[in-house]
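Re: that backbone. Tokens:
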């Protein structure tokens, strides 16, 4: 939610209501919106868990595709501001205006004074391995369900009916579980006053499983963390964990907001508490605090699903105020990630792949060292001339989805040059959005580049006025005469100094500046600064794994194309 709000507010206008506040015009650029989205994600996590530093690290580890030093302090300022603002609102809501002692929206309580022994670190590491297995199973099941939804549940009816079906199944499953669970305890043994359902118990008693089912997830997590040892049996918590695991796999990815952090924390806290109760049965008196095992179970389950380590450790430490558990939490998270990565990717990465978002990983596969940039570029290259015919530009935009096009000084037929074909000398790069707006505003000239009468040259403000809803080329009417007789001079609008690499650069040398600088386009040229294209995408490597890894690198990451780009943040 924070990322969505930041992306919208930073633009200073609403496309939905067609109103422009005429502010923040300098932020109406792709890279500015990208930074605001990252900052919004950090502020949202900080407000939810009361963890400003954890929010910044979350944005760095999961939410940002580009990072620099100035972005760090801006995100930290945004995270701290969101926490303080939330505290002011909560203090006014609870009648203590100005009291800034509230942790966040999700208050899991503090673990002050809860100690652990050195030998328990090995138990926590083993729990981390189990959390990695649970996370891998969760991701695999959810992946299959998501693919099924994309293939068969595409109509509006099913997008509306499936949440109703899930709600009915969740209600039925939980009620049946409570019905067949007969564990009751006296109310004096419980720690909270607002989650003591009697259900089928006698007067003065509460139902153990019902205390987890008939309350909000945040309070259920707090119960599992802090309830005394004797108020729940291992059968109760493992029953709840088993049912909740299947239902959580089903709910994530629905057509409604369903969340991931709190369900995974609740699931892990349930089975983690069961582990603590089990150890107490094996060695009474040595494992009397099941809450710390619930905390480790929550950490490794969430870590096994999303595969985060540093940021998740800091978020948990900040939200629970339990600094001494930083090391064991990091050990369990790392173990969960190592085990989970043996089977599949994190859930965020899986859904990024399903959505087709070309998100670059931090590093290219090692096999890319043996591949040249000239061998991986797309072919044939879609180029335009400095003074291009309107009909050719319209055809190019209608038949391709490229976001940027190399501009060359001349282009007749490709001239054979060894095993490559050569276009004209590279002059710059023009964006698809610029071409569409030039066609829409009728910025035409003759074949010599002389503007037509009453033709006004566009400024940067004219292009920014259409951002981010760039018109479609399909909605621009161009007569046959206009297509054949009119031209557009691209020289005032192209970028004359975009980033380029030579065809003999390795894939790694092209990948690193592309990733580190947050580029959207990179053009491959030869030693004479000419745009060239190979007849085939030849990869001169003997290893089949090299082919697969390079294909995955290029296919998933956005392709280091000559004349193509990464469409997205």
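Recovered sequence:
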């Amino acid at each position: 939610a924070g990322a969505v709000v930041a992306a919208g507010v930073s633009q200073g206008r609403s496309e939905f209501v067609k109103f422009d506040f005429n502010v923040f015009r300098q932020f109406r650029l792709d890279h500015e919106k990208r930074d605001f989205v990252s900052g919004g994600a950090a502020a949202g996590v900080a407000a939810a868990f009361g963890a400003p530093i954890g929010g910044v690290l979350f944005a760095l580890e999961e939410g940002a595709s580009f990072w620099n030093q100035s972005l760090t302090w801006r995100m930290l300022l945004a995270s701290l501001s969101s926490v303080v603002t939330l505290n002011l609102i909560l203090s006014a809501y609870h009648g203590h205006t100005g009291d800034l002692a509230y942790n966040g929206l999700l208050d899991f309580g503090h673990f002050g004074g809860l100690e652990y022994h050195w030998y328990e670190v090995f138990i926590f590491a083993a729990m981390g391995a189990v959390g990695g297995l649970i996370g891998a199973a969760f991701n695999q099941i959810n992946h299959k369900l998501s693919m099924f939804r994309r293939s068969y549940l595409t109509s509006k009816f099913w997008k509306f009916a499936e949440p109703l079906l899930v709600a009915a199944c969740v209600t039925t499953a939980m009620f049946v579980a409570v019905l067949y669970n007969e564990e009751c305890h006296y109310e004096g043994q419980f720690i909270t006053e607002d989650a003591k359902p009697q259900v089928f118990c006698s007067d003065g008693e509460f139902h153990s499983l019902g205390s987890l089912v008939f309350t909000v997830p945040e309070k259920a997590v707090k119960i599992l963390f802090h309830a005394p040892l004797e108020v729940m049996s291992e059968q109760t918590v493992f029953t709840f964990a088993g049912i909740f695991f299947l239902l959580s796999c089903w709910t994530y990815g629905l057509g409604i907001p369903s969340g991931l952090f709190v369900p995974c924390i609740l699931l892990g806290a349930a089975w983690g508490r069961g582990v603590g109760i089990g150890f107490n049965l094996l060695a009474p008196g040595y494992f009397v605090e099941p809450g710390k095992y619930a905390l480790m179970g929550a950490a490794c389950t969430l870590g096994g699903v999303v595969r985060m380590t540093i940021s998740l450790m800091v978020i948990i430490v900040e939200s629970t105020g339990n600094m001494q558990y930083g090391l064991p939490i990091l050990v369990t998270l790392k173990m969960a990630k190592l085990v989970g990565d043996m089977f599949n990717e994190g859930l965020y990465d899986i859904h990024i792949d399903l959505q087709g978002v070309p998100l670059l990983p931090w590093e290219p596969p090692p096999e890319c060292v043996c591949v040249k940039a000239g061998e991986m570029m797309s072919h044939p290259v879609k180029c335009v001339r400095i003074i291009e015919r309107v009909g050719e530009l319209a055809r190019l935009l209608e038949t391709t989805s490229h976001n940027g096009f190399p501009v060359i000084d001349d282009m007749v037929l490709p001239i054979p040059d060894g095993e490559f074909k050569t276009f004209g000398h590279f002059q710059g790069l023009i964006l698809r959005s610029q071409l569409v707006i030039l066609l829409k505003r009728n910025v035409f000239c003759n074949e010599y580049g002389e503007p037509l009468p009453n033709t006004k040259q566009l400024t940067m403000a004219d292009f920014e006025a259409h951002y981010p809803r760039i018109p479609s080329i399909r909605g621009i009417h161009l007569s046959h005469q206009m297509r054949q007789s009119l031209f557009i001079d691209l020289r005032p609008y192209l970028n004359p100094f975009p980033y380029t690499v030579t065809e003999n650069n390795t894939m790694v040398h092209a990948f690193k500046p592309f990733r580190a600088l947050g580029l959207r386009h990179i053009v491959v040229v030869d030693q004479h600064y000419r745009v060239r294209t190979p007849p085939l995408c030849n990869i001169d490597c003997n290893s089949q794994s090299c082919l697969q890894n390079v294909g995955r690198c290029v296919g998933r990451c956005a392709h280091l194309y000559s004349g193509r780009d990464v469409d997205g943040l």
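The CA atoms of residues 159 and 273 lie 36 Å apart. The longest helix spans residues 120-152.
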